[in-house]
Write the C-alpha cells for this entry.
Amino acid sequence: MGSGSLAQFIESSKVLIENARGLGDLSAVLAGYGYDEARMAEGARLWSQADALVRAQAKEYGEQHEATAVAEQARAEVQSTYMKAVKVARVALADEVLAGSMLRLTGPRKETLVGLIDQAATFYANIGQSPMFGQKMLRFGYTQQKLQAESAMVEELRRKIQAQIKESAEAKASTILRDKKIAELDSWVADLRAIAKVAFYESPQELDKLGIHAFNSQRAKRAAPVAQAPSAQA
C-alpha cells in the first residue's frame, strides 16, 4: 500500500468508524447487526493504534534518512582528509622502508566503507606510534594534534555508521508493526463496510454519511482509463 493510498485508507476508515458510531440514526441500525457501542469502541481503538503506528513509522524512516545522510557526509569528509594525509605521507616518508607496510601507503585505496575505515584507522594508529614518522610529517604541516584530530574523525564515522544501522533496524521494525496493525484494521473495516451495505440496502443514500460512496468514487476516478483521442484517419 503506497503512502497516498495508505493515507486515504486511514482517513476513510476514520470517517466510517466515527460516523457509524456517532450518528444516532446509523448506529441504531448497525447495532442490530452486532455493531453495538462496545464493538464500535473496539474499531475506534484499532484505528487509533494503526494511526499512531503510521506516524511512528514515518518518524523512524525520517530518522533513518537523517542518519544515513549524516553518515555519508562523514564518510566523504574522512575519505577526503585521509587521502590528503596519505599523499603527503608518501612524500614525507618516501625514505622510510617500514612506512609503506605499517601505514599501508602502497597499493590502491579500498572503495568500500569497511575498507576505508580499516585503512584509515591503521594509518592514523601507526603513524602516531613512530616519533620519526611524526617528525617528518611535521615538516609538511601535519602536527600531532592534526593527526589526532583526523584519527578522531575516523572514530566518529564509526559511531555514525553504527547509529545509521540502528536507525535502519528500528525503521524496519516499525514497518512490520505498522503493516500488521493496518492489516487488522483493514479486515475490521472491510467487515463493517460490507454489513453497512446490507443494513442500508433499501436506503443506500445513508452510505454517503459513512463516506463509502465518496471514497469509492475517488478510487473509481483514478482507476478509470483515459479516453483515447480519435485518430486523424477516423
